[in-house]
Amino acid sequence: MIFDLLRNGLSIDLVINLCVRIFIIFCVLPIHEYAHAFVAYKLGDETARLKGRMTLNPLAHIDPLGALMILLVGFGYAKAVPVNMNNFKRGKHRQHMALTAFAGPVSNIIMAIIFMFLYCLFGFKLASNEMMYYIAMFFMLAAQINISLAVFNMIPIPPLDGSRILSLLIPSKYYYKVMQYERYIVLGVFLLIVTGVLDTPISIATTAIQRLIFKLCSMIFV
Q1: C-alpha atoms less than 13 angstroms from C-alpha of 222 in its C-beta half-sphere
Q2: Active site members
Q3: Contact present, 108 and 149 (Cβ < 8 Å)
């Protein structure tokens, strides 16, 4: 996005894109993290609630580097919600951890559906002037970034949500062995992001899901 600004200068499309990304940082990421905290709480772990993370207050969730990634590349992260697996039901630790992790991407997909519905509403029914067109564009971009966040977080590598879900698919001894190297894997993830290696697979998955959601929402207005 910064490169677009330097290359093409300020434009209405760029301003809308920037507004959407700021909206994502302050309104969408808190919902994603709240979803983690809420599901963990319902499954018996009050750690996030006691640490003030079961809230929609963006100041409790924003991570500066993750927010910068949202502004620059369109996907990023907030502060990880603290979860204590020992508080989950005995024998259900991994299952409940996976459900807690899955709650975040699910919240993004739900928000993407809502924003895509609003895009179709403004684009198909209310786009009678230029202002409505730009409002519709805002909702489309919001839906797209939500899908990107869901896809990015479902990558099965630490510390992303997908790695917690992966714990259901591989034996515990191997999973915990991998998690011992989480801090080093995080550096690898950043390297993949910076070099753009993840751009293409995330874009392909995001486009496919976006087309499906658009098709389902647009059927209402056809």
Answers
A1: 6
A2: 33
A3: yes
Per-residue pLDDT, 222: 67
- pLDDT above 90: residue 127: no
**Count of helix runs (H) and strand runs (E) in the chain:** 11, 0
Average pLDDT over residues 24-42: 95
**According to the per-residue pLDDT averaged within each range, which of 156-160, 170-174, 180-184 is highest?**
156-160
pLDDT at 101 over 90: yes
Rounded to 10 degrees, the C-alpha dihedral 117/120/126/130 comes to 120
184 has a pLDDT exceeding 90 = no
Q: Which two tokens stand for residue 174?
A: 């191997």
Q: Which H/E stretch holds residue 49?
A: helix 47-50
Q: Which residues neighbour 31 within 8 Å (Cβ) at sequence distance 6 or greater?
A: 56, 107, 111
Task: Return d(Cα 198, Cα 195) in angstroms, integer.
Answer: 8
Report H helices in 82-222. Answer: 93-120, 130-153, 161-166, 172-179, 182-194, 199-218
